[in-house]
Amino acid sequence: MALKEIFHKPVDRNIEGVIKADDDASLWLELDEYVITNEVEKRLEAFLDAYNNYAGANGVWISGFFGSGKSHLLKMLALLLENWEVEDITARGIFLEKIKENEILRSDLKKAVAIPSESILFNIDQKADVISKQEMDALLAVFIKVFDEHCGYYGKLPFVAQFERDLDQDGLLQDFISEVEARTGKDWPWIRRREKRMAKAIDEAYSQVVGEQIQGIIDKYRNDYRLSIEDFAEQVNAYILRKGDDFRLNFFVDEVGQYIAGNTKLMTNLQTVAESLATKCKDRSWVIVTAQEDMSSVIGETGHQQGNDFSKIQARFKNRMKLTSQNVAEVIQKRLLLKNEKGVEQLSELYHAQVNNFRTLFGFGDGSATYKNYRDKDHFIHSYPFVPYQFDLFQSAIQNLSLHNAFEGKHSSVGERSMLGVFQQVAIKIADHEIGQLATFDLMFEGIRTALKSQIQSAVLQAENNLDDAFAIQLLKELFLVKYVREFKATVRNLCVLMTDSFDQDLPRLHERVEEALNLLEQQTYIQRTGVIYEYLTDEEKDVEEEIKNTEVETADVAGELEKIIFDRILKNRKIRYDENGQDYPFSRKLDDRLYGREQELAIHVISPFHEQVGSVDILRMQSMGREELLVIMPAEERLIRDLGMYKKTEKYIRQNISTTQQDAIRRILSDKGVRNQERYADIQQSVKTLLGQARLIVAGADVDVGGEAPQSRITKGFYELIERTYPNLSMLRGIEYKEIDLSRYLEGSGLDLGDNLSEQEQEVLAFIQSNQRGGVRTTLKSTLEKFERKPYGWYYAAILCTVAML
């Protein structure tokens, strides 16, 4: 059975993905298919209660992420409050049918719709096409424009609209229009668009209807016209009063949040317009707006004054209608993914067969955020063929891409990115697949690619032209989508979840394919890897990454960094205490046959993955014979070699370029590279620690068998073995702990005759002294220390002093 056969309605039917505020076409279909989710129902209850019981705040702020249904809800409210009638069906009737179970909401809705009103619905960015945001009263100008148009006047030229309004109030507008049209043979809308060219005819017609000779009337209006919020509010109030008691004129403004974002003057404009309408019109003029997310995210970082302006907006727009990702998912499930009877039956069987595999197939790990899985059978049937994580992850993806200016257009909420539209496109793409197959996350990319700036998706376009590996291109698209989703960790494991296309997926094989594809993409510099996390590269990032790869670094610098990690950050101590006698034994630090620091009698010699013989244990064993060293052979690990080299190259490149670059974009990339490089360094340290925990330990050609994986404790135990093999005469001390504080006690003793029974250690020291005497050499304390601190003794300072004192 194909997927397209399980849906209640054809998935390829025409669904308007984004509701445009000025689009009157297919209104009945929009009203009919509008989904009142549980979330929307709650928001409607709060709004209608405020609308019916005015408490001073005439502003409503509808917020939510991209594609969450803000614009659709705004349009539905505009149609509902005006009780728009379409084909003898009212918006009120359609909405009441959708909320049969909620008597309180039904009652509030009936009361609100009974209030006579008109709705002015517009997208502020579209209506501001000829108005610069930098103008002093840019936002007010848009409000005046749409109000003038609603009144039938010429909104594009406000002074012409004022000319028309004055004539209308004097009852002369229709006479004037008839006169000027008779004189010119043109209709008035054509004439007013060319008011400069038609100035003479306008003057003549105006003079005729007012009864006095007037010249340059339009120029006079042009020169005298001034924007005034107070005048605008009075004009709105006058319009309302002419319409009769209880009448309301409401403004529904789409995408106002992004229009005012970051502009204090526009922010103040919005607050003042809403406040003036409330002052002049009371509850008879409401301002309902939409914006991305919360109000605070629109304003961003605020200074003291900007914060004050923002608090005023909040006071005016107390009525909040916030839509979340849950609302988006519910709309998509009910409007697009609703199943028929046959589909429910088939999916019920599939659910029971696969329910125990959901956690394995769709569980994210490696420190990634936890995303939703299927909750129960109903949730599975409602969501399939999509996986619940895809709703939240895709929404987060487009939100973060927009924050990073990835989309075309002046503002970031453009039509092609409606989540409903994207999910429909994916459903159509896989409509012929069999039940049991799933939508992979990369398919979401196709739904937004036409809205993306070409430079940010250039790596995908280039890969499609140059790579024969379709699977690798799918992965690249997924990495593009999650590039700026910081809570998602793009590891091999998590990317496998995104690439799971059926319930009978061969997971080990999928893991292999993902790794192979990632290696290919990394080699071709489409992506970069930091530890176990992969990241898509934009054009500029790709250029920087190529330059980093081509940066030359000295082998000694790389080796020196590894030496610091091993001996300063993991082993740390320059001496190791031998538990048998409490003595600290210094050691030489050696890495890949190179000595670092001072040479000591004992040595810890680490063979890293950089060593040419790292895989030849027998050769290394032979070379260590006769040396007083603990040989620590790390496992071969290509990734460590690449990562450490990349770390040093990145460090050098940033150091050389961060202070000289003049481009903000490059400086940002370098700064980000620096952060990523520190993360890479942390991963390198952990990798070295792991490899040391797995290292092979050899002393005098023999393996040292130590348990555990903690590198410091393993190497310490191996070093004990080195001490015992290098200093066989250490046992002469019999484990007694000697301290310098005991010297006086030994010196104050009664002394010993040479015939007395001497301990083994005393006999050794005495034999040394006597040997020197026979050779005519004077024995000094210095020469005694030099003799017994070295092999085969390895005695410590206090033990040697106390032994001499005993003699």
Which terms summarize this structure?
9% strand, 807 residues, 5 domains, Rossmann fold
Descriptive overview:
Helices cover 53% and strands 9% of the residues. With 807 residues, it is α/β, with parallel strands linked by helices. It folds into five domains: 27-127 and 235-323, Rossmann fold (3-Layer(aba) Sandwich), CATH 3.40.50; 158-226, no CATH class; 326-537, no CATH class; 555-720, no CATH class; 730-806, no CATH class. The strands form five sheets. Strands 13-12-14-15-16-17 form a six-stranded mixed sheet, sandwiched between helices. The N and C termini lie far apart (99 Å). The relative contact order is 0.07. Residues 300-305 and 410-417 have low confidence and may be disordered.
Global mean pLDDT = 87
Tally of structural domains: 5
**C-alpha termini separation:** 99 Å
Which runs of at least 5 residues are low in confidence (pLDDT < 50)? 300-305, 410-417
Q: Can you count the helices?
A: 38
Q: Helical content, roughly?
A: 40-55%
- Largest sheet features: 6 strands, mixed
Strand portion, in percent?
A: 5-15%
Strand order of the largest sheet: 13-12-14-15-16-17
What is the general shape? elongated
* Helix-and-strand structural type: alpha/beta
Rg (CA only) = 40 Å
Number of strands: 17
